[in-house]
Amino acid sequence: MVSFDVEFVVDAPIARLWAALKDANKIFPTILPEIFASIEHIEGVDGEPGAVRLIKFGPVLPPGSYVKEKLVSLDHVHKSVVAEEVEGGHLAIGFSKWVANMKVTDEGDKTKMYFTFDVEGEGPAVEQAIAQTKVGTAPVFQALAKHVVDSGLYA
């Protein structure tokens, strides 16, 4: 197993960003349609551990690209989330496991985001996917933070 970390700061207060994350299924396809064509809850109780969502990717990925992602744990007190890919996504390109652990911490009017990815896989796409994740995670959440601030929502 390989683990790697990604951390960065976004320009939105933690309370507002955390509240917006609860609406991520609606927000991400709206603000980043080139990445997320749609996100829908398909199994379990939405927002509760065990829930599964289907993410269909936009035109930046090959046609038909998708991932089914299971919510493993959600801690509102410590502001952390663990999600595991269960079908498609990285599992379709050589990984046998892809688990994302996210934690957010307060930085005043900003939020620090920490991600640890625990992955297993082999093949030519593995190193490329890890490199893309290291570069591509921050812009997605920076776009969310910008949406939160610009929209005035989640205040």
Structure overview:
- With 155 residues, the chain is an alpha+beta fold.
- The protein has one domain: 2-Layer Sandwich (Alpha-D-Glucose-1,6-Bisphosphate, Chain A, domain 4), CATH 3.30.530.20.
- 28% of the residues lie in helices and 43% in strands.
- It has helices spanning 14-21, 24-31, 124-151; strands at 2-10, 36-43, 52-57, 66-75, 80-88, 95-107, 110-121.
- The protein has a seven-stranded antiparallel β-sheet.
- Helix 1 packs across helix 3.
- The chain is globular.
- The chain starts with a strand and ends with a helix.
- The model has no long low-confidence stretch (mean pLDDT 97).
Q: Sheet bearing the most strands, described? A: 7 strands, antiparallel
Overall structural domain count: 1
Please indicate the percent range of residues in DSSP E strands (runs of 2 or more).
35-45%
Helix content: 25-40%
Assign the CATH superfamily.
Answer: START domain
**Which residues form runs of ≥5 with pLDDT under 50?**
none
Strand order of the largest sheet: 1-7-6-5-4-3-2
The first-level CATH class is given as Alpha Beta
From the coordinates shown, what is the CATH architecture?
2-Layer Sandwich
Radius of gyration: 15 Å
What general outline do the C-alpha atoms trace?
globular
Organism: Riccia fluitans
Pfam families: Polyketide_cyc2
Keywords: Abscisic acid signaling pathway, Cytoplasm, Nucleus, Protein phosphatase inhibitor, Receptor
Protein name: Bet v I/Major latex protein domain-containing protein
